[in-house]
Structure formats: structure tokens, C-alpha cells
DNA sequence: CAACATACAAACAACGCTGTATGTTAGTTT
DNA sequence: AAACTAACATACAGCGTTGTTTGTATGTTG
């Protein structure tokens, strides 16, 4: 039954696809490796050959998602007179559009959102947390730049603006993913971002 | 070993307390009933006497949380010239303050946020979803009222305003709970709500 | 003060699942 | 072509957990 390298890669890919499907439908906790194997048309032996255990399988599922190029965005923001708000709004919109069109991403993120992060999968959630921290710092720096450029409404601080943006996007995504995707996340997200960034730059009377 | 009714109630309470502690520390999926029993100072027999199974135990944990009186809020909003924004902002603030001071609520909501909702606990998450739906409708109606009163900035629709409010609060809470409560949710939430409601009422130029 | 129900503890049976060890076949290398 | 190894399938041992059942002592009720 020895396969060629290319065939093995394909087997691995099949397992990942099956895991995505099974974990999404039954939940990571209640799906057995046998379930995944059956869905992939292999035995558990194949899975344990390609992956150390279930946590590793989930991790590789997560790793299979191409991540947006953040250094590229950072470079865009570096320019002296960069229009920070325009860049951030576009990046947010693009992220939502990516999510809206990539069904794999939808399922995998759903799996991660629903899975119990306290036990064996703590490594994954920690990594997400680290990423979140980096994003937060980058966002705050970007808004600080906008503030220096005099473009940030006085009622916002870089930190509060960054927090709000994060909360909205996170709330939007988790709501959409966990709740049956009952609305058009691309268009609703676009509107929300537009309104949010409008308030960042508006010279409205400061709150209260 | 037969206990009096009052003692039995107390045993039940002890079990709930222990479940809260153990599930919070180890996660619902990876904590055994034995773990909970040990922490409560009883055997699994006692747990299965008071609760049908683990899902029921979690459900009762959820039910043990006193829910804010929503009909009371609704009545406040009914008044012809009610200041919708003031009421909503206050309600949101009070909810965050309640969460900030009630450690049981923090732990139980954390448990629910982290637990896998796809399997045995689907009943709980469905109930939460139903509640969310009701909230959403109530919020939208409230913002519609504000719109009729001419208080809602033209760049917002009742629906978009309600959605945004929900996303912010949800993002805020889940971020705080899942991420080690690393900031002052009461004060940051208060600020965020203030800014958000300021943008609802501001007569800023419409977005773009 | 029986008789019954309640509130558990303790023992049990059974299963599902995991990880690993071993077997087997077919590529790959020399 | 022999030797080796990659890519699995199969078989196995074993554990942890669950739900249930049985036992039992003590309140509770008529």
C-alpha cells in the first residue's frame, strides 16, 4: 500500500478536508478520529501517520489558513502622509470579504470558536491571543499616527478607537459564524466600518 | 445518610458551586463528574440524584444566574417622550457593572463561552440565541422610536445602530472574559458606550 | 411507630476512544 | 535487483468515564 510522495500529500490533504467537515459538524470534542478517518476514506493509522494527535490535527487545520500579509499593511502605514483611516477601513473590509468568500476559513474559524480552548487546544488559543496582541499594538500605533496628523476626533484616544474597532469586528465575525451566517457579512460589515470610521474622523461635539 | 430537605438543597448548591469551579478551571469537556463530586465533597451518586447528566448540570448552572428584568426596561421605554439613548446607555452600563462585580456570572459565562456548543449543550446555546434575538428586536424597536423622535443621526438606521451596539458589547465581554480580564470592563465599557451613543445622536455629516 | 420515600454512597457493567505496536505492500535508492 | 524505507492498515491493550443499579440510613408521613 505504499504510495508515492505526491499521493501521500494528497492523503494528508484529504484528512484535513475530512477533519474540517467532521469537526465542523460534530464539534471537535465529540468527533472521534475514527469519524474523521471514515470521512477521509482512510483508517486511523493514516491520520496518526500524518498527525501526532487530535490537537495537532486541529492546529494544522488552523495553519492551513493563509494569513493576510501584515507586514505589507504595516509598510503601507509607514508612509509619512498615509491616510490611516482609509487603509484601516480597506483592510478591515478586505478581511471581511475574505471571510465571506472562503468557506474553509468560515468552517475552521467556527471550529476554533466553538472548541473548548482550556485543555489540549490551549496552544492554539494562545497563539491566537498573541496574534491579537500584535494586532492591537499595530492598531493603536496606527490610530496614534492619525492623532498626530490631527485626523482623530478629540473624543477618541488611539487606544479606545483601536479597542472599539476590534470589538466590532470580533463581535461581527463571531455573531455571523456562530449564528448561522444569517446576514450578509460583507455588506453589513462594510457599512459598519464606514460608520465607525466616520465617527473617528468627525469633529462632532465631544461625548457629553 | 438521609438528609433533611434543607440539607439536600444545600448539597445541590454545593454541587453547583463545585461544578462552577471545576468546569471553569478544567473546561466542561475535560472535567469528569468525579472531579466535580470530589470538589463538592460528595460522590457522583449525589450529582446524578440532583441532576440528570452533565448537560443538565451546566444548564442549571446557567439558570442559577438571575437575569436582568427586561420587561422593566421595556416599560421604561414605552413612555411617549422617553429618552431612549439615556435608558439604553444606562442599561448597558448597568449590565457591564453587574458582570464586573458578580464573579459567579463571570465564571459561568466564561464556561459557556468556552464550551463546545455543538453537541450535548446545544440546548443552552439555542436558548441564548433566542434571548439574543429578543434583545435584538427590542433594541431595534427602541432605536426606531428614537428615530421617530428625530434623535437618531441620519447616517444610522435602527438596525445598524442596534447591531453595532450588540457587537460592541459582545466583543467587549468576550474579550474581557476569555482574555484574563486584563482591563477594567466597567470603566472602559462606560467610555465606549458614551462614545457610541454620542455618535448615534451627533448630527455629524453622514458617512462619506 | 410502622411504612414509605428521600438522599445519597458504593459497586458494577459496558463502552468508546486513544495511542501504539506490529504487519504489509509498494516506492525508492544504490 | 536487493535493501531499505515510506505510507499506510490492522490488531491490541488499556484506561477513563458514563449511566445505572443496588444498598442503606435517615427523615417524613399517616
TrEMBL record, chains A, B:
This is TetR family transcriptional regulator. The keyword DNA-binding applies. Residues 32-51 bind DNA. The keyword Transcription regulation applies. Gene3D superfamilies: Tetracycline Repressor, domain 2 (1.10.357.10). PROSITE patterns: HTH_TETR_2. It comes from Shinella yambaruensis. Keywords: DNA-binding, Repressor, Transcription, Transcription regulation. PANTHER family: HTH-TYPE TRANSCRIPTIONAL REGULATOR ACRR, HTH-TYPE TRANSCRIPTIONAL REGULATOR RUTR. InterPro entries: Homeodomain-like_sf (IPR009057), HTH-type_TetR-like_transc_reg (IPR050109), HTH_TetR (IPR001647), Tet_transcr_reg_TetR-rel_C_sf (IPR036271), Tscrpt_reg_MAATS_C (IPR013572). The lineage of its organism: Bacteria, Pseudomonadati, Pseudomonadota, Alphaproteobacteria, Hyphomicrobiales. Residues 9-69 form the HTH tetR-type domain.
